Amino acid sequence: IVLGHEIVGSVEALGSGVTKFKAGDRVGVAWIYSSCGKCDFCLRGDENLCDQFQATGLDANGGYAQYTVVSEDFAYPIPERFSDSQAAPLLCAGVIGYRALRLSGIKPGKILGLYGFGASAHIAIQVAKHWNCKVFVFTREGQKDHQNLAKELGADWVGATRDTPPEKLDCAIDFTPVGEPVKEALGILHKGGRVVINAIRKINPIPELDYAKYMWYEKEIKSVANVARRDAEEFLPLAAQIEIIPTVTEFELDQANQALVLLKQG
Q: What separation in angstroms does the CA of 217 have from each of 33, 111, 193?
């Protein structure tokens, strides 16, 4: 398998049945490479839950190559305002952050908590501010670079994971790989609020929750599993409209290992 997702490139050749694109069009390929198209999940637009879901660069060849092949149904037009390097993170970090926002149920004027402020969160905050939400950002203790970036992007308050914000949260999204923020978010969530977990895995468990303290009053926990086509189709034009600015550091190909180490270090 060829690795690499968040693919951006130009259409070089077309299959005989392709109608959505023409040669030379700039397109992107997200984490979702394909699904069966026939099951109940696919038919309702939740291709990410399909039992035959295939991931780009994991189940099917990815973008660390000169060419790749993808179904037109899983390729997306890239807005002109984004360079290739700016568009690439929109196809994973951006799209899944948008899905998390959508699943959180956040409404304009309401208070959103973001736990962790990395690749996905720094894009999600720009969407949330466009929707006129108040955004509180929680990071690890002493993570000043992330906190400063959050302030630059419009955060209404920033603090550490266990800090108490000035107001309770209507919704929260946990982007971290650890379990504690889920409990912390539930503890400062309004009645009827929702915590969305946007993480592939947790390296330690979510702490035990006292039901009366953390889950009473119809509070909810919801997970995010990959992305569906709808998310990319809605988010990419919206990102261009908002004029989202992804923070990108570029590396030469022979610096790939260095880039991966920095990514692992957060």
A: 39, 18, 9
Strands (E) across 35-153 are located at: 54-55, 76-77, 111-115, 134-139
Q: Any residues with CB less than 8 A from the CB of 143 and at least 6 apart, and which?
A: 117, 160
pLDDT tens, 231-249? 999 999 999 999 998 989 9
DSSP H or E segment with residue 9:
strand 7-10
Query: What span, in angstroms and rounded, lies between the C-alpha atoms of 100 and 197?
Result: 8
CA distances (Å), 18 to each of 31, 53, 77, in order?
Answer: 21, 21, 14
Q: Which two tokens stand for residue 103?
A: 């699943």
Per-residue tokens: 105: 């149920």
Q: Show the domains of the chain with their CATH numbers.
A: 1-78 (3.90.180.10), 95-223 (3.40.50.720)
- List residues bridging with 34 in a β-sheet: 54
Q: What is the CB neighbour count within 10 angstroms for residue 29?
A: 26
Q: For residue 30, give Cα distances in angstroms to 60, 115, 235.
A: 12, 24, 12
Per-residue pLDDT tens over the stretch 160-210: 999 999 999 999 999 999 999 999 999 999 999 999 999 888 899 999 999
Predicted TM-score (pTM) above 0.90? yes
